[in-house]
Amino acid sequence: xxxxxxxxxxxCARQVFDExxxxxxxxxxxxxxxxxxxxxxxxxxxxxxxMHTFRVTPSTHTYSIVLSFVPSVCHxxxxxxxxxxKGVAFSSIVxxxxxxDMYCKYGFVDYAFGxxxxxxxxxxxxxxxxxxxxxxxxxxxxxxxxxxxxxxNYSPDAFTVSSALTACFGVQDLAKGIQIFCLIIxxxxxxxxxxxxxxxxxxxxxxSIKDSVSVFNEVDLWDSAVCNSMISSFTYHQLEExxxxxxxxxxxxxxxxxxxxxxxxxxxxxxxxxxxxxTQLHCLVVKLGFEQDHVISSSLIEMYSKCGLxxxxxxxxxxxxxxxxxxxxxxxxxxxxxxxTVESLELFGELLxxxxxxxxxTMTAVLLACTHGSLIDKxxxxxxxxxxxxxxxxxxxxxxxxxxxxIRAGEVDKTIxxxxxxxxxxxxxxxxxxxxxxxxxxxxxxxxxxxxRLVKLExxxxxxxxxxxxxxxxxxxxxxxxxxxxxxKDRNVRKVVGCSWIGxxxxxxxxxxxxxxxxxxxxYSTLRLLLQDxxxxxxx
Length: 540
Fold this sequence. Notes:
Layout: H1 2-6, H2 10-19, H3 25-37, H4 41-53, H5 60-67, H6 73-86, H7 93-105, H8 109-118, H9 124-136, H10 140-150, H11 158-170, H12 174-187, H13 193-205, H14 209-219, H15 224-236, H16 240-252, H17 259-269, H18 276-288, H19 294-306, H20 310-318, H21 325-337, H22 341-354, H23 360-372, H24 376-390, H25 396-408, H26 412-419, H27 428-441, H28 444-457, H29 462-474, H30 478-490, E1 499-503, E2 507-511, H31 520-536
Antiparallel strand pairs: 1-2
Helix pairs in contact: 2-3, 3-4, 3-5, 5-7, 7-8, 7-9, 8-9, 9-10, 9-11, 10-11, 11-12, 11-13, 12-13, 13-14, 13-15, 14-15, 15-16, 15-17, 16-17, 17-18, 17-19, 19-20, 19-21, 20-21, 21-22, 21-23, 22-23, 23-24, 23-25, 24-25, 25-26, 25-27, 27-28, 27-29, 28-29, 29-30
């Protein structure tokens, strides 16, 4: 039976199990574990129930297996009660640790603490389960506090410090993260790939990408987990070229990319136009057999949509076997992003008929489509019904799209009243929209009020200062215009230099009015020859 389970033939294993004249607890455990490893959690739970019917007493190993896949916390509580009546819950470290994991998985951290405090004996794994559970449940500060308490009597292992680092970047506390990093170096854990990956992620999420690069270079471990952490860190900080470079180097080191690797790279491939890198990554996805992975498929849809190839994105969407809400959102947003309002709203209608319930991202995509299509009435309808009809609470993004539609329709006064109800107050984008409208209408008082608000939100924003200068000069208020110009100079507010870029054997950026750049002499020599040919042809 064990041989069949190891080879994944659960059907033959069950047949052997049913034909056994005597079945002890080890046989039942093997069958339960086999169902669980094969993805048949329901059958595994059914075997656990039959075990009681045949009056076979479960072992601590049985309970630890079952607690790892119980479908709900209610099932877990029933097993917990059964353990208490048998006197096993507090005496077994293995069972106690499994209970802690189970309660934390479902967010019942207080129950996990109750189990932890009632255990007769605890070990490092018990502490690891509690700390990791706190992290996964969103209680990052609590996780770090437990790590500090643990160190008074127990020595942390590699798994403990990696969980503590996760807690630090969850609350973006770089100071605590550095303290743990020093402990890691002192304890010699940095060579562990899990720890080094966590350290790279911690520095990245705490806005210290240089330290992430330093850790990556220092450990010099060309491992899938470490490379993935570095690639995701670069993409998180919008350093897409660096992410691609690490990926190419990892391929040279014969490191096979994972689904996570490709998903990270596809998210930034849209910045390279034409999408050569994106199509190459797509080919690699097919070659590795990841095309049916719904996360990869969603990333491909997003990549092609951002490149303006929404038809290619729709082909991928139509060939998906399992379409989750993320995939629906990616495709609806892809159509909206490319101005294809009708297709976006039609797909939203299909989602309402056959797909899962829409969330706030779905409604953001729908309102974006309405904005691009100037469908004000539809946009307002979706906005006013999204709470009652779809149970989606409006966010700043939803308010922003509605504000943009109303301002374009000339409803500035109504927009100002509406944005007063925004959860986080007016944002800089809405300020710019109102400022542009007030400037055109010649409303000086409103222009000054909104410009003052925009300067507070974006002190380095040129737009607010330039609008004020234009308005003051138009109305003949030269002293006011001079004061604004002086404020710009004092605050070092300068015009943002525009640029164009082209991807030819790399990425070359051409700034506005730039004379000297890569290949500049050849470019201008060719331009002079073209102008000479045009003059000779008499076209000018």
